[in-house]
Structure to design on (375 residues):
């Protein structure tokens, strides 16, 4: 009897975690390798659109997430100086009814923890930094920084923007610095003086913005993330500390509600916004990419992780349809069914136009990766 196809996933980020959870649930023989020794609840929020909640439903964590996160009634876009409403996109009950699931904002660490809880611990290997991958034709050899060596039949690169798998397929090339940074701060809502806030609001000007939302269902923690032009990024750093002074300078003259947020958020970090042009291939032989390893983008649509999670679901769907031993057919089907949508989201994110003015987001939020007709 032929043994099962051994699947190795590199990286337990949001894409890799979704892939491990869904593939294990589908009865595939999967192992997840992560370089970190554990994950922490770092200071960041994340939007989880209905398109992602449908994947969380399959992973069995939809209800827990619905309890964990905030349920914004609307996405507001406002003028950064005057607070004038530029768009008001219905979410809340409207999202459940029209897009098939909730629209949440949540702490990224809480989302990640729930996703990891949906994976049996015995299929996860921590402190495993992949250093070298060799597709021998009949199997793939994985060499890790701790000196260990593993073998798999197919390997999925969920290892983020500086992916070792992408490098193996296409050669070493740093991502592109967009010239923009994102400042991030999470803090207790009670620290904000004199202003109540929309549940989810993006404040805009011509060249910068600030996105603000709650990250808990109790609305006791709030988060902002910016997009601001900045000096060229030192690629040896993944983030650097920032400060309230830097924020005051970047948003001088903005509406008092924005100033109140800046005064309340005393710990600020600064992250580069990096991207790559669409890749000429997503797989070769026994190796395949997903998420930021494949299509990193500016976070301006709040759909970067969403695309990683959708990739994971589509790859699972394709492997189940063809059988994991027919991985070449599965990889081709996966790319054919993902590249157009991921490319569209990458482009809209790059242009930073999403929901700035009134528009219909149904093509993005209404998508169901498990039901979409396959090309
Ligand atoms: P990652 O999350 O980067 O995970 C990669 C994993 O691989 C990590 O755990 C890493 O430790 C591991 N790894 C890397 N190399 C190796 C190796 N050699 N061996 C073993 N393990 C390895 N997206 C949204 O959907 N909504 C948002 O609101 C949002 N906000 C954002 C705000 C900012 C400021 C930024 C910068 C991004 C934001 N994004 C958002 C984008 C989102 O964070 C990414 O698109 C998403 O994290 C990609 O997931 P991933 O699993 O592909 O990669």
């Amino acid at each position: 009897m032929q043994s099962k196809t051994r699947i190795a996933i590199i990286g337990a980020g949001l894409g890799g975690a979704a892939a491990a959870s869904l593939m294990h649930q589908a009865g595939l023989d999967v192992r997840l390798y992560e370089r970190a020794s554990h994950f922490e609840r770092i200071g960041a929020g994340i939007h989880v659109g209905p398109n992602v909640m449908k994947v969380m439903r399959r992973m069995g964590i939809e209800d827990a997430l619905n309890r964990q996160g905030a349920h914004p009634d609307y996405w507001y876009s406002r003028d950064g100086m005057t607070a004038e409403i530029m768009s008001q996109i219905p979410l809340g009950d409207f999202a459940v009814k029209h897009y098939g699931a909730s629209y949440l904002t949540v702490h990224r660490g809480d989302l990640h923890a729930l996703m990891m809880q949906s994976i049996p611990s015995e299929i996860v290997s921590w402190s495993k930094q992949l250093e070298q991958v060799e597709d021998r034709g009949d199997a793939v050899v994985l060499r890790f920084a701790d000196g260990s060596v593993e073998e798999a039949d197919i390997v999925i690169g969920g290892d983020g923007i500086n992916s070792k798998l992408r490098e193996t397929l296409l050669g070493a090339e740093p991502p592109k610095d967009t010239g923009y940074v994102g400042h991030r701060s999470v803090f207790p809502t009670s620290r904000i003086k004199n202003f109540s806030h929309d549940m989810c609001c993006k404040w805009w000007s011509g060249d910068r913005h600030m996105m603000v939302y709650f990250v808990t269902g109790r609305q006791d923690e709030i988060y902002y993330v910016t997009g601001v032009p900045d000096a060229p990024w030192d690629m040896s750093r993944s983030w650097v500390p920032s400060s309230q002074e830097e924020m005051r300078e970047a948003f001088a003259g903005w509406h008092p509600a924005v100033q109140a947020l800046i005064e309340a958020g005393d710990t600020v970090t600064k992250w580069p916004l990096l991207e790559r042009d669409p890749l000429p291939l997503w797989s070769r032989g026994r190796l395949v990419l997903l998420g930021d390893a494949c299509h990193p983008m500016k976070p301006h649509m709040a759909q970067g992780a969403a695309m990683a999670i959708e990739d994971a679901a589509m790859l699972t769907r394709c492997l189940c349809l063809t059988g994991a031993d027919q991985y070449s057919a599965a990889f081709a089907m996966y790319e054919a069914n993902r590249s157009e949508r991921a490319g569209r989201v990458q482009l809209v994110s790059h242009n930073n136009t999403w929901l700035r003015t009134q528009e219909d987001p149904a093509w993005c939020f209404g998508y169901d990766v498990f039901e979409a007709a396959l090309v």
The chain has a mean pLDDT of 96. Residues 10-16, 33-36, 46-47, 128-130, 158-160, 164, 182, 184, 225, 271, 291-293, 299, 302-306, 308 surround flavin-adenine dinucleotide (CB under 6 Å). The radius of gyration is 21 Å. The longest strand covers residues 176-188.
